[in-house]
Specification:
Layout lengths: L1 H18 L3 H29 L7 H21 L6 H7 L3 H4 L5 H6 L6 H19 L6 H27 L1 H4 L3 H16 L7 H10 L7 H8 L14 H22 L6
Helix pairs in contact: 2-3, 2-7, 3-7, 3-8, 8-10, 8-13
Amino acid sequence: MAESLRLYFKFIGIAFRARLEYRSDFLVGVVGVLVLNLTNLTLIWVLIAHFRTLGTWSYWEIVMLYSMWLLGHSVYAVFFWHLSELEVDILSGRFDQYLVRPCSPLLQFLGREVNYFGVGDILFATTAFSLAYRNLALDWSAGQWLFFMVSLLAGLIIETSITWIAGSLSFWLGRSKAIHWIAMRFSGLTQNYPLDIFGQWFRLFITGFLPVAFMNYYPLTVLLGKPNAFGVASLGFLSPLVAMILLALAALVWRRGIASYTSSGS
């Protein structure tokens, strides 16, 4: 295990150095991500300027909702985003090279590249969260901060696991990126807006089938002392459990996919 982790971090180091060879591209990409996130929050502000609140959520509560998701998403974007590109390696035959080396195919694939755009997400999310915390006049205890950090980790695992599952379906389907794209469109709605404003069927879908609401909405209702969309307080504490179930499912799909993999011959 220790040797595998050492190799993974070595792969990541090489990937970072390769990315930094193009520094102007790095800076433009980071600035672009900052502008995109600012645009998202500006659009939400425009809505609230007309309606005062969305459901029972004020503007700064929604900023915190968005930035909580973005904090976990930023780590995913840097290290795990390319799981959605697994179909490219499978269809091109490049996946074969991971199977003939004396190292975990998963570690080789994950260490292949990093996405520097996630750095912009980290900067924006940290700033937005700090502003929201201050404007909401919050004073969390050590236990609340611990719960917040655990929820961030759970959110990261949930998003990574969903992408990993969608990518692994390429072993059977050949192309599965569209599945990931659809999942992320649903996720985007719930990260920008509170679940309260959606209909019952949509709430059920992103709670029980595609559980992206556990990335930020449910734990944040606990931290802000707000009732959630179903009025079941225990839902706010289930993010770690949901994350572990999805991670186990993703690992199972991956292992089954590896076992059934046949080279494309390219």
